[in-house]
Amino acid sequence: MAADGEIVVQLEEDDVAAETEKWNLSLVAYVVGNTPSIGAMERFIANQWNFVTKPKVLLHNDGYFVIRFASAKDRNAVLFFGPYTLYNQLIILRSWSVDFDFNEEVLRTILLGVKLPNMPLKCWSERSLSKIGSGLGKPIYADECTSKAERISYSRLLIEMDVSRPLPGTIKVCDPIGKIIDQPLAYDWKPQYCHLKDEMKKLAKREPGKVEDRIAQAREKLKTIQIQMRDPAGA
Q1: Cα–Cα distance measured from residue 90 to residue 30, given in angstroms and rounded to the nearest whole number
Q2: What is the DSSP letter of 48?
Q3: Where is the DUF4283 domain (predicted)?
């Protein structure tokens, strides 16, 4: 086929289905700070993730790892036992997706463990938790204790959230009879990021010609910034 006089190769769903299925079992891992060697990452996995079948580790030139697991169960187990650090530097993990873009996603959208303390038991269904999680970002999983209601003091979700803006401390939930619940949120850890979007807007007004340079500098800063680990009680 052609578009605007140029040849365009059309791929069908069947052409990419097998590879998509294979990589769907993967996590993208980014170590904040200096990128470790693939050997260092493999040693870390052998020591810290020894509760799952040894995954395949690949290093991308952009400085992140793609880690392919033997099963979805192994991948999910690794997610739930996080967060992790390597050489005292945080490892950011997120699920691989077909439209994954490192610069747009890893430096902005991070998988966070979010607790909902004392949430009413009537709200613990999978559908309710999914809706609440969608109000914060992209919900990925509820931990086993939450999904099986084996712990009732709080529920815990893994949610991909935009950390380029302040994280909310509460979320409002309206139940079927119209009662508004002001549900508190507690995070396993909070990333300390600069607010790139606001900074770029201010710069665009002052010096329009320098915006692109500053975006590149800010992205580089995000790659090296240290992320403070906080106790959920202090969040």
Answers
A1: 8
A2: H
A3: 20-104
